[in-house]
Amino acid sequence: MIRTMAMTKDQQLIKDFPLENIKQNHYEWYWVDFSCPTTEEELLLDTFFHFHPLAIEDCLMRLQRPKLDFYEDYHFFVIHKLNEETLIAEELNIFVSDHFIVTFHKNEAPEIDKVQKLLEEQPKYWERGTFFLTYQTIDKIVDSYFPLVYKIEDHLNALEDELTYQSNVNAMQIVFEFRSDLLHLRRTILPMRDLLYRILNSYRFALKKSERAYFGDIHDHLVKLTEMVESNRELTADMRDSYMAMNSSRMNGIMMMLTIVSTIFIPLTFIAGVYGMNFDNMPELHGRYSYFIVLGIMLLIGLFMLVFFKYKGWFKLFKP
């Protein structure tokens, strides 16, 4: 689908006009949005707009790295937006000059809708031109990152408060899922931050001082997002280490208890083994109370060892 919007020379905003009207040069600027285009519509990038073949190739190929390319009379952006459900990056391409902006995306882009709605509601933005529209589009995309990061951060904070071995046996699976989500975010946010840095420091991308401040604000947002993602990744690492420490401590306690039980039964097994030998001339074998005496001795040995281990503080090391 192709959507059109333009500001006429008499300062009127019009929408959904035929693409051929662009050639009549009646507009101060125009915006053409290719939303989920068909194969025939994709061909218009070459046959109608005559964009550079390399830029067209970047539009048609899947998921190029965020970048800014300079051509003779326009600039070409590759921007990444994030799918709110899967956190997978989706590409948005922008061709921009002083007189036009052309956006191309193979997935739905609600950020474009928001900017166009803003233009309809705020006539004061009409005269700011195509670079301001570019700023608004990138800004809306970057703003859409924040709820995704905040959502993960809230879940991690709640999980950290409840993290105990008994109540969160599957905690590590949840933590690693969040680490995977944070990795998706990081792969998108870092290249976008580098792109904004290049925009701000490129002499070929001629920005006015006021426009530079707007793009600088986006860069600040991306720096903040980067810090939040890295902070949350460190939090997941700390939670993983804490869980492993708890697990190790629990295993050490279990091994300590098994060691105590085994140690107690060593002398008892020895006594039982001695009196289990079937010699005819063994003392005490034929005594009337020998069985009860041996059981009593074994019980006293076991109690003595329990008291001795408790005195030594071994039971304090056991944490069930």
From TrEMBL:
The keyword Oxidoreductase does not apply. GO terms for cellular component: plasma membrane. InterPro entries: CorA_cytoplasmic_dom (IPR045861), CorA_TM1_TM2 (IPR045863), Mg/Co-transport_prot_CorA (IPR004488), MgTranspt_CorA/ZnTranspt_ZntB (IPR002523). The keyword ATP-binding does not apply. Keywords: Cell membrane, Ion transport, Magnesium, Membrane, Transmembrane, Transmembrane helix, Transport. It is found in: Cell membrane; Membrane. It is a multi-pass membrane protein. Its main location: membrane. The chain crosses the membrane at residues 254-277, 289-309. CDD domains: TmCorA-like_u2. Belongs to the CorA metal ion transporter (MIT) (TC 1.A.35) family. Mediates influx of magnesium ions. This is Magnesium transport protein CorA. It comes from Lysinibacillus sphaericus (Bacillus sphaericus). The gene is corA.
